[in-house]
Every structure is written in structure tokens, then in C-alpha cells.
């Protein structure tokens, strides 16, 4: 089969897929849906209520099931939000098992939920699942429900593929791409930038420490995902050249990143990919970061520098060196390694292979 395909793209139900994005997963899903549609494919996006209505949106039924008083009182009753999400994906998979073959050619599960994997065998069409995180017990359990899991897996980095290898020995690597037309090369400027969700595992407080030690102003941008963490660790760092500028849409964020002399990326966990790294490179902005997770795969000596994990003094020492790197080299790395074009080509070829 060749030409236009009918693709069911399953998103995470936790946050709407719309700007300003709650995180990298939502940004990636939105970008992928638009890229596939621009290539002539029909993409039905199954996403949380409130997602971008300009997409062919099918809202996931994230509604609380009508549980009896006895069921709700049971000691095994999970958190209500967990139950809502479980119920939404259960209804979706049952619907796709009943009539998905008439509506779609392939299902691409871009969520973090276990049910699209556990119930894939019930669907009359091929299923692709992208592994965005390190292994979790729920996903590993879902994969092992059958001796031969019928799902085709991709991983967002070689690091992530390696982490999953004991359970998924042959995940294909398809890195999350950025639209290099929207994330255009910027002129640089006098400040550093840190972008992402302000949560402990992303370490924005460490970026503030490193910037201050290096003597550079820093602009922090992104949604506050953990209010307590922000209050206790980030707010005390603000002032004296460190500013929090809020949660910006893609256009304003790209302008801010393109106007920075370097981007700081400070994960406190093994980052499975690091979309903010790709976004910075597309803007021609070199990156200083911690040597964790997939960051060493994306960065080369021409476009970035890496310090030992958690070492803000070492990171600060690398910043003056990083800001002198060639912005054109950073942009070239994004275009050749982690662009939307590369990602869409790889997914398109995979879909064609599975439906032929």
C-alpha cells in the first residue's frame, strides 16, 4: 500500500495537546500530527479534552466511571485520576477493536498508558508504540501479556532503546523531531535560557546556580509543574539576573531561545531524549548540560558541552566556552539529526511497511 494512510494517533490523556504545551510529549504529539497531515495522511488524534481543535480531534472520554458506593469503598480502589485515565483508554481500545479496521490503517500509540499495548492483539490493524520513558512496571507487564507482543516499538533515543532491551529487544530508534521552520535560527544575545517543566527532575534550580557562578543572566521559561518545588527551590534563586518569564507559546519561546547565547539543560534523571536540546539547536543556540540520559547522543563538540551530572561548578566553567560555539553548526546539527523532516520520513516508512 502506498499514498495517504489513515492513522489513529493516541496521545496522553493527562494534558491537552495544545499550545502552550504542558511538556515535551504534548509538543511532540502535536508536531507529529501536523507533519503527517501535511504529507496528505488522515490523522485522527485521540487526546485529552481541550486539545487543539484545528486537528482532527477525537476527545478521549476522560470521565469518571459511575462506581457504586461499595466499589469506591473497596480497599483496592485506586486514585480517582488513575481510574479516569484507565476508563478512557479502555473505552478507546474497545471502540478501535470493534470498528478500527474500517476507520484506520494503523494505530500509533504515543501515550504512556499500558492498555493500548495490552489490548493491541484485539485490534484488526497494526499498532506502533513509541517508548518515551524508561521502563515502568505497567508497560513491562502489558508487553508480557502474550508470548509474542504484536506491537511494533520505537524508542526516542538509543539510550531509551537500551534501557528497554530486556523487554523490547528490537525497538527502532526514531528521535523526536522539531520543525526547523518554526524553530528558526536566532541571532543570540547576552543571556542564557532554560526551558521546560519546572519540576525537580528537570533541575532548573541547578541551572540558576550554574548561571550565577558563571556570571551570566538566565531566563527560566515553562509551566510550573510542582508548586512546592518551585516555591522552595526556584523562587529563592530569582533576582540578581535570574528571571522566570512564564509559560510561553511556541512562537514566543522560539524567539526567546533564539535570542540566547546558550541554553542550559540540567536533568536530575536520565533524560530519555530531551526535546529542549533539539529546539535550542534548531534556533542555533549551543547547549551546556549535564551528561545524563540521551543528551550525549544529540550534542556534538561543535554544538554543545557536557558536565558531570549535578556538578554546577563544572557546568559554570563550560558556559563561556559554549557561548563561543558556532551557531551555524548548532543549526546544522538540528537539521540533519533531529528535524521534523527526518522524523516524519522514518515514521512514514514504518507505517508503509506495516500496512503493506
UniProtKB/TrEMBL annotation:
InterPro entries: Glyco_trans_1, Glyco_trans_4-like_N. Pfam families: Glyco_transf_4, Glycos_transf_1. This is D-inositol 3-phosphate glycosyltransferase. Residues 189-323 form the Glycosyl transferase family domain. Keywords: Glycosyltransferase, Transferase. It comes from Streptomyces sp. 900105755. Residues 23-180 form the Glycosyltransferase subfamily 4-like N-terminal domain. The lineage of its organism: Bacteria, Bacillati, Actinomycetota, Actinomycetes, Kitasatosporales.
Amino acid at each position: 500500500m502506498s499514498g495517504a494512510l489513515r492513522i489513529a494517533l493516541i496521545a496522553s490523556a493527562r494534558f491537552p495537546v495544545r499550545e502552550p504545551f504542558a511538556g515535551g510529549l504534548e509538543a511532540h504529539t502535536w508536531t507529529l500530527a501536523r507533519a503527517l497531515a501535511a504529507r496528505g495522511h488522515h490523522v485522527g488524534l485521540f487526546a485529552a479534552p481541550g486539545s487543539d481543535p484545528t486537528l482532527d480531534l477525537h476527545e478521549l472520554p476522560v470521565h469518571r466511571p459511575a462506581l457504586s458506593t461499595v466499589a469506591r469503598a473497596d480497599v483496592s480502589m485506586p486514585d480517582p485520576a488513575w481510574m479516569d485515565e484507565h476508563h478512557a483508554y479502555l473505552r478507546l481500545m474497545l471502540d478501535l477493536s470493534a470498528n478500527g479496521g474500517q476507520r484506520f490503517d494503523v494505530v500509533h500509540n504515543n501515550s504512556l498508558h499500558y492498555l493500548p499495548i495490552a489490548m493491541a492483539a484485539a485490534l484488526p490493524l497494526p499498532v506502533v508504540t513509541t517508548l518515551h520513558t524508561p521502563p515502568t512496571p505497567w508497560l513491562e507487564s502489558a508487553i508480557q501479556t502474550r508470548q509474542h507482543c504484536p506491537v511494533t516499538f520505537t524508542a526516542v533515543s538509543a539510550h531509551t532503546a537500551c534501557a528497554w532491551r530486556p523487554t523490547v529487544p528490537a525497538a527502532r530508534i526514531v528521535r523526536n523531531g522539531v520543525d526547523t521552520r518554526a524553530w528558526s535560527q536566532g541571532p543570540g544575545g547576552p543571556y542564557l535560557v532554560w526551558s521546560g517543566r519546572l519540576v525537580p527532575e528537570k533541575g532548573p534550580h541547578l541551572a540558576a546556580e550554574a548561571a550565577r557562578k558563571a556570571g551570566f543572566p538566565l531566563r527560566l521559561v515553562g509551566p510550573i509543574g510542582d508548586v512546592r518545588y518551585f516555591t522552595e527551590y526556584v523562587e529563592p534563586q530569582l533576582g540578581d539576573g535570574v528571571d522566570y518569564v512564564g509559560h510561553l507559546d511556541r512562537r514566543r519561546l522560539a524567539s526567546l531561545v533564539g535570542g540566547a547565547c546558550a541554553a542550559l539543560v540540567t536533568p536530575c534523571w536520565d533524560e530519555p531524549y530531551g526535546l529542549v536540546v533539539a529546539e535550542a539547536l534548531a534556533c542555533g543556540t549551543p547547549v551546556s548540560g549535564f551528561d545524563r540520559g540521551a543528551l550525549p547522543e544529540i550534542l556534538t563538540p561543535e554544538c554543545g558541552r557536557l558536565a558531570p551530572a549535578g556538578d554546577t561548578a563544572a557546568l559554570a566553567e563550560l558556559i563561556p566556552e559554549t557561548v563561543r560555539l558556532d551557531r551555524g553548526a548548532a543549526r546544522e546539527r538540528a537539521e540533519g539529526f533531529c528535524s521534523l523532516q527526518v522524523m516524519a520520513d522514518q515514521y512514514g516508512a514504518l507505517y508503509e511497511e506495516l500496512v503493506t
